[in-house]
Amino acid sequence: MINAIIEYVRVMNYHVYYSVLTLLLLILSYWLARRIAMRKFKRDVLKTEHDYQQQISDLQMQLSGKVNMLEGMVEKLKLSNQELSRLSDIRSKFMSIVAHDLRQPLTSIQGFTSVLMMDPQSSANSDQAALNNILKATENMNLLMGDLMDISMIESGKFKMDFKEFDFNQLLEDVYILQQVNAQKKGIFLRRYAHPHDVLVYADRFRISQVLNNLLGNAIKFTPQGGQIFVRYFVEDDWLICYVQDDGPGIAHHEQAKIFQKFHQSDNNDRLARKQGWGLGLSIAQEIINAHKGEIGVISAGLGQGSMFWFRIPVTPQENQPK
Asked: Is residue 153, in this structure, part of any structural domain at all?
């Protein structure tokens, strides 16, 4: 009996131990499974958070790019509006200048022609004076129309150069002879300094003479009677550098950056002299020099200090120039 009881107790203890061990194993398995699940969940959360942050970063970069692009478009639109406003101002100014400046020589031609027709008893001297005035008016109109045609070709992209080799000394001599007559009429001393030897330049002879005539013509136009003008040039490192210096009214510092803009005319210059042009000559001269891969500029110490206009062009053919 006692042995049976002992055996029963032993068997019961075994079942208890087994149950406890099983329970412990279940608890451990649950704990391990939960831990693994929590780690996986944490990794998934971290991955999701990383992906979310990456998406946010990508969206921020895209948004930043869109903002930059939008700002660039706004800036371009702003510049376009400014350019349109500037072109509108130029157009209005151009129409006003054309209407005024062409009317003046036409009125002169009409007036002097009427005098010749209505007064058959007029003397030969008065007839000659009237004819001279008509000639001056037509010459002024030709100059104005020439500038207008040049600026029109520049704007349309049809301003072409005819590059050929020529002697710059001879070109300077031709321009000097032409401008010397105008200088003498105003009592201005004009002197040119030629190079002691022939200087062959590969350029558009007509257009370079146009630049020289413009610079010398402006110097004569604005230099007072008794003034002096010097034109000289030299060659250095395959560049021809030419200067036109006068002791005229000079150019204010704030205007020197605007002097080559279309239709710009200084308020400090003589009013009558300003009426003799449209303010296109220097702008056209700049286009010509740029087409030659050169540079043009002005140096002036200020009002009353005279001016020195200069340009430089390469002596030999340059890239993209016809040969």
From this structure: no
Report the C-alpha gap between 284 and 261 in whole angstroms.
Answer: 9
User: What does the DSSP 8-state code read for residue 63?
Assistant: H
Residue with tokens 């400046």: 101
Distance CA 10, CA 28 (A): 26
Q: Quote the tokens at residue 265.
A: 């005319």
| pLDDT, the chain, mean | 78
CA 218, 222, 224, 225 torsion: positive or negative?
positive
Which of helix, strand or coil describes residue 311? Answer: strand
Instruction: Indicate the pTM of the whole model.
Output: 0.60
Q: Please give the tally of structural domains in the chain.
A: 1
Domain CATH for 228: 3.30.565.10
Q: Are 271 and 183 in contact (CB under 8 A)?
A: no
Residue 160 to residue 92: CA distance in whole angstroms: 27
* Residue 135: inside a domain: no
Please give the residue range of the domain that contains residue 232: 164-314
- pLDDT tens-digit profile of 258-273? 888 876 766 555 544 4
Task: Please state, as a whole number, how many other Cβ atoms lie within 10 Å of the Cβ of residue 47.
Answer: 10
Distance in angstroms (rounded) separating the CA atoms of residues 177 and 202: 23
**Residue 219 forms part of a structural domain:** yes
**Sign (positive or negative) of CA dihedral 145, 150, 151, 157:** positive
